[in-house]
Amino acid sequence: MAEAQPLDALLAARTVWHAGRGTPTMATGEPTGHAALDAVLPERGWPRGALTELLLPADGVGELALLMPTLARMTAAGERVVLVAPPYLPYAPAWQAGGLDLMCLDIVEAPPRDALWAFEQCLRSAACAAVIGWPSSADDRALRRLQVAADSGGSCAFALRDRRHAVNASPAALRLEFQPEAAAWHVRKCRGAQPPAAAIRLTH
């Protein structure tokens, strides 16, 4: 017979869980590089093989700084990162300053009518560690296709969208909304757990 273990030890090892406190969590995500954010996400990082939505009040509120530690780590490991139809031409020195290896960064130029298709194909290819797109007019069906494609290819998919879409349901595994009044990120949805009540203010 196996030796009995104290309950505290089992809880610390996350082999049992408290009823009413959600499901046990495992560190299976891609670390965000922001300890405060990792601490509240169910997988302790960006979900792999899944779609993450970043809901923004405007472009340039810190969304790329949020992603940069992850993208830098991926490219340092020789993994491919793809930007699909970015609204502005990426400023290479800033990306390099953020630690990104430009040799592992690809930019796909596409008109709006083709950008969603390109986004989906990059995700399905299984050749990209992360794919970032700006699908401004994507409906639920289009987002679901992106989620399925990310799952199929095992990529981290990031959709940067206007915060007005926050009121709509989404198939994304994770949704974060930037709140400019608090300069913080609010987790609106996270697959596998209840979103934290408090917004996360990140320090750089």
Automatic annotation (TrEMBL):
Name the domain of life: Bacteria
Q: Does the keyword Repeat apply?
A: no
Q: Which UniProt keywords apply?
A: DNA damage
Q: Which SUPFAM superfamilies match?
A: P-loop containing nucleoside triphosphate hydrolases
Gene Ontology biological process terms, A to Z: DNA repair
Task: Identify the InterPro entries for this entry.
Answer: ImuA_translesion, P-loop_NTPase, SulA_CellDiv_inhibitor, UCP037290
Matches recorded under NCBIfam families: ImuA_translesion
The protein in question is named Translesion DNA synthesis-associated protein ImuA
